[in-house]
Structure formats: C-alpha cells, structure tokens
Amino acid sequence: MTKILKATKDNLIKAKELLLNGELVGFPTETVYGLGADGTNKKAVSEIYKVKGRPSDNPLIAHVHKDYDLTKLVKNIRPYALDLIKAYTPGPLTLVFESKGVVVDEATCGLNTLAIRIPLKKEAQELLKLVDIPIVAPSANLSKHVSPVTAEHVYKDFEGKIPLIIDGGKCEGGIESTVLDVTGEVPEILRAGLITKEMIEKVVGVCKVAKHKEGEKAKSPGVMYTHYRPKTNTALFTKEEIQKSIELYEEYIKQGKTPYFMCDEDAKKDLVGKNILYLGKTAEDIASNLYYKLREGEEKADIIIAIEPAYNGGVYEGVLNRLRRACK
Ligand code: TXA
Ligand code: MG
Q1: Across-strand partners of 75?
Q2: Of all protein residues, whose CA lies closest to atom 3 belonging to ligand 1?
Q3: Rounded-to-integer distance, Cα 113 and Cα 95, Å
Q4: Is residue 55's pLDDT more than 80?
Q5: What is the pTM (predicted TM-score) of this model?
Q6: Residues facing 5 on adjacent strands
Q7: Strand order from edge to edge, sheet including 276-280
Q8: Protein residues within 5 Å, CB atom, of ion ligand 2
Q9: pLDDT range class, residue 116, cuts 50, 70, 90
Q10: 244 FRET partner, CA 20 to 30 A, in 106, 139, 216, 280?
C-alpha cells in the first residue's frame, strides 16, 4: 500500500523512520518530486534503480539540508563553488564535486564524483534536517517517463511499490535542477535547468556548457537517455510550421479523435477554438507548467501537438531541451 501524506511534523518523522530503515520515500522539492533513499545504504540505493527501471550507469544526486557540512561528503571544494553555494543554494542547483566515497558506489555508479543538491522547498529542508544524512533521489518517475510535479504523479508511477509519498502540493519550478560540474577551473553545465548560464556567470565570470556528441560518453549520463516521454502520441512543430500542425490536428478531429495543442501565449493566438494545453507566457511559467501539462495531455489527448515556444531568455534552453526530448 502506498500512502500519500501531508508534510506535517508527524508524517515527516514517519518518512524519516522509513528512510533510515532502508525504504524509499517520495518527497517534494521546488523542481520536481524526488524518490529518496539513504545514500549510505547499498540495498536501499539499489532498490531505486530497480523500481524506476533506471540504467545502472546513471548516477544519483545526494540531497542534504542547508546546514549540512559538505566536507563530510566531498573534497577539493573550489572557492568559486563556495560563491555559487552562497548565491544559489538552497535552490535548484546541483554541484558535482570529487567524492569522498561516503555516498555508496551504487549511487555514483563508480564515478569518483558526487552530485550534491540543497533543495529550497520547505518540506524537503525539514525532512533532510530530520534525517541529517545524504538522501539520494532521482526524479520520482519511472525511467523515461515525464518527471512528476505532484504527489499524484508519483503515485501513478509507483503505486504499491513504495510505502510513502509526502505531499507538498505542486512543485513551483517544474523542471529539474541545473547540474554543474565544479571540479574544474571553470564550471561546466552538464544539464540545463532553472539556474541559467547567465546566473552562474554573474557569480563566477565564466561558465562552459557541455556538448554531447552522438556516440560519445556524456559527463552527465542522464542527458543521453530517452526521457520525459508521455504515454500518448506526440508531435513537435516550430511556430513557422503552424499551418502543418493545424492540418495534423484536423486529421485527428476527422477520425473522431481528441488532439490537443501544447503551446505558449504566442502560438495560442493562432489556435483559437482548439483544444489547448496552455504552457504560459514567460520561460519561467512554461518551465513550471511543462511536465504538469504533459501529464495532463497523456490522460486526455490522443495526440499532443506541441509548438516550440518563442525564445524569451531565462530558462528557455532548459525548457526547449526537455520539450524536444518529450516529443522525440
Ligand atoms: O531537480 C532535480 O535535480 C531532481 C530533484 C528530485 O532534486 N532530481 C533529478 O534527478 O532530476 P535525476 O536522477 O532525474 O537526474 C540527475 C542527473 C542525471 O542527468 C545524472 O546523470 C546527473 O544528474 N548526475 C548525477 N550524479 C552525477 C555525477 N556525479 N556526475 C555527473 N552527472 C551526474
Ligand atoms: Mg529524471
């Protein structure tokens, strides 16, 4: 039986007891829901890979509370990394350091690095403070599926497979944290997210972005896998191709099926009277709604016809990357 419980003190203590007992617990963060396990418990960590169906070479992020002493887990922390910690944590920034090996190999997949995240969401901070150990947590979705932004989304993927989901409402950020390698002289973005290149440059001065070439091993293995796929048909068009997208929509209507457009404010103006999964106007709105709307679409649409949002800076890169992979 999988319970969904509100994040009261008593329920967070229940979550703590389960985690310390080697069980898995779903919990909210400001980005997406995580599927947590004790990062020092080999069996618990292996269980994450099992229930998610996650490839065994895709490492996990260790989550800690804001007062946790990071030097217990990692070494050779560079001064610029400390500046980033000060500027953007707690928050949606994951930093990759040299590991001390406290978090087990099962979680780091044998790499000598460890990714650390200090989430902002109050409920996550409270839980992490209570347990006071590193909690490794991937996004709480079955491997390849759309990431979860509500407790119900987690329930849909893991009903009967985990004992508890802590409900903290809808995640505000809506897409995963930025993964940043801080082991080198210059920081390097491995996964785009809510903390942008510009925001990092503001603090450090420079920031590289990892490019993944086909057939080459990625520094952040997760970015190589099929991901974010809804369980319904999808199609992706640019704004210039809107006429073609309308033809596809009409074809579905003719067949008695239920197509939905997924689009921003800009494209919406050309789609009056049609079924729409509306993403919003700013890049931040769109990030916040993206997974929620993909999950809604898979419930009610025979096809999601997505129109790429117009460039509007901010977290646009992170949004577009995920939308393209969802509609692959
Ligand atoms: O916002 C988030 O980051 C969410 C919430 C739950 O915190 N978590 C999340 O975890 O997105 P997951 O497992 O879905 O994605 C983790 C990403 C993967 O792309 C993985 O390859 C990368 O982080 N990663 C983890 N450890 C790494 C390491 N040591 N070096 C490079 N990349 C790493
Ligand atoms: Mg994920």
Answers
A1: 98
A2: 177
A3: 10
A4: yes
A5: 0.96
A6: 166
A7: 233-237, 303-307, 259-264, 276-280
A8: 139
A9: very high
A10: 280
